[in-house]
Amino acid sequence: MKVLVPVKRCLDYNVKARIASDGKSMDLANVKMSMNPFDEIAVEEAVRLKEAGKVSEIVVVSIGPDKAQETLRTALAVGADRAILVQTDKPTDLGGVEPLAVAKALKALVEKENPDLVIMGKQSIDDDSNQTGQMLSALLGWSQGTFASKVELGDGNVSVTREIDGGLETLKLKLPAIITTDLRLNEPRYAALPNIMKAKKKPLDTLSADDLGVSFEPRLSVVSISEPPKREAGEKVADVDTLIDKLKNEAKVI
Amino acid sequence: MSILVVADIDGKELGPATLNAVTAASQLDGDIHVLTAGDGISAAAEAASKVAGGAKVLKADAGHLCHALAENLAPVVVALASDYSHILFPATTFGKNVAPRVAALLDTQQISDITKVVSASSFERPVYAGNALAVVESTDDKKVITVRATAFDKAAAEGGSASVEDVDAGSDTGLSSFEKAELSESERPELTAADIVISGGRGLGSGENFSLIEKVADKLGAAVGASRAAVDAGYVPNDYQVGQTGKIVAPNLYIAVGISGAIQHLAGMKDSKVIVAINKDEEAPIFQVADYGLVADLFDVLPELDQKL
After folding, report:
1. Residue B252: which of A100, A171, A253 has the nearest Cβ?
2. SS3 category, A254
3. B160 to chain A, minimum CA–CA distance in Å?
4. Residue B305: its chain A contacts at CB < 8 A?
5. A13 in Cβ contact with A30 (< 8 Å)
6. How would you write the pLDDT of chain A (254 residues) with one tens digit per residue?
7. What is each CA distance from A131 to A99, A113, A141, A154, B100, in whole angstroms?
8. Which runs of consecutive H residues, i.e. helices, occur in A152-254?
9. Domain coordinates of chain A in residue numbers?
10. Is the peptide bond before B100 cis (omega within 30 degrees of 0)?
11. B104 Cβ partners below 8 Å, 6+ apart?
12. pTM: predicted TM-score of the whole model, two decimal places
């Protein structure tokens, strides 16, 4: 069984996002970029399925600038077999390549690669859209298991336990299927140094949007980006009695 | 043209976040129709017909729409889409799961998690874990939108008298089926609807210690939440998680206990009316957003709160 895992290069989880001086984009110059954390979980899940003997090949794909090769190499170092970069110089967070366009590009790749399963992050931590997996599933007419916290491959199907508002829900999906990962699915490993060296020799192909017959022109234009209103720090209280008194008599919330 | 709000069906009932989506719809120009889709959902359709501001309720009632399977539900919405300029979903796990499937089938770039209606085609939405607010303008003919519940008041649940009309429920695609649900059973209010929320972080140290939080929650009639760190550490289930990647809450009172205040967490609770932080680290960033801060050991404070409330 072949698995396709899309991965995205994003502003690192620990870096504070700053708005660029144009007020219409984010300042991403000279800041640390990393693989989207939900995508790390997707790669890990695919690698575990391979280690369990249920998956034979893992192809990772990224859409982004030349530097997204680093993100793909990270996935290769963790255990993916092959990588594809769909190269673009458009922004991939806002005002550039949007989830629908990504889903269309991935659909074209799925039709080329014929995987049985696509595992991807539920959202990227830059534009926070949470759309691409569901859109890809719709365009392919496949089943979808979003926000997965457990994945069990069966014969011609896959059971996916999903994180929903009220708790957990388990669905049985007919293969081929799209799975999007939630936080508790697994804990991604770090790549070992020898594997990082080996990853440099694994195949990495580069394609363009034209090669896939898709357009990366945005449908949404960014009118403005602004800082959210700041909350002012209040007061420190000395003890529990004071706290209860303030909540009762000053804030009147209890 | 009219506006379609796709209702979140919670079991067989009308999910509360639907009411916030109706308010967002009321800020657009057009009649509001509410689609209730599910299996045996007459009561939900009835409830939807009473929501103030709705002109019509559409009911798609069929066995294969049980559990809101996205593969079966999306075509029902798509079949209705030609009559609507905007299709809104609440940004619950239901809406997040189904809306993009609808948007892709309509060849529309969805706008997720809106916090403000700026115009019929421009909307504000938080990005980068709430560190920035983007206003985006859609060039698509039809807008597919998910609505962040905490950013809009709830429409009145009573007062409306919309007609209920049956619509084509489509057919079973056979792509997916429901196996089971393990829903958190709790006497406490639902996290996103509670007036008071008390959340614990990694400072609690273990899942057992969350009982200290629960005791105080029960005294206050509060819901219990958690930071992502506490969820990652396995102290509590993920549906407790408050934050950009979990639930967004905005109660009257939010009490953060042993939570440092990572950006990710703040994004999920900073619109609360009053915030209390209890943490022994006086440098913890949570104090920068707290109205009342208590620098103390939570293992002393929680039992004392339990006793004195």
Report:
1. A253
2. coil
3. 28
4. 240, 243-244
5. no
6. 999 999 999 999 889 899 999 999 999 999 999 999 999 999 999 999 999 999 999 999 999 999 999 999 999 999 999 999 999 999 999 999 999 999 999 999 999 999 999 999 999 999 999 999 999 999 999 999 999 999 999 999 999 999 998 889 999 999 999 999 998 899 999 999 999 999 999 999 999 999 999 999 999 999 999 999 888 889 999 999 999 999 999 999 99
7. 6, 22, 15, 26, 5
8. 193-199, 209-212, 240-245
9. 2-249
10. no
11. A100, A103, A134, A135, A136, A138, A139
12. 0.93
Burial class (CB in 10 A: 0-12, 13-18, 19+), A54: middle
Quote ipTM for the complex: 0.95
Report the gap between the CA of A84 and the closest CA in chain B (Å): 24
The residue whose two tokens read 């440098």 is B283
CATH of domain A2-249: 3.40.50.620
List chain A residues with CB under 8 Å of B121.
none
Sign of the CA dihedral with B153 first, then B94, B132, and B108 last = negative
Neighboring chain A residues of B101 at a CB cutoff of 8 Å: 134-135, 137-138, 144
- Beta bridge mates, B133: A226, B126
Q: How far apart are CA A22 and CA A39, in angstroms?
A: 30
Structure tokens at A207: 């394609």
Instruction: Determine the residue type at A74.
Output: T
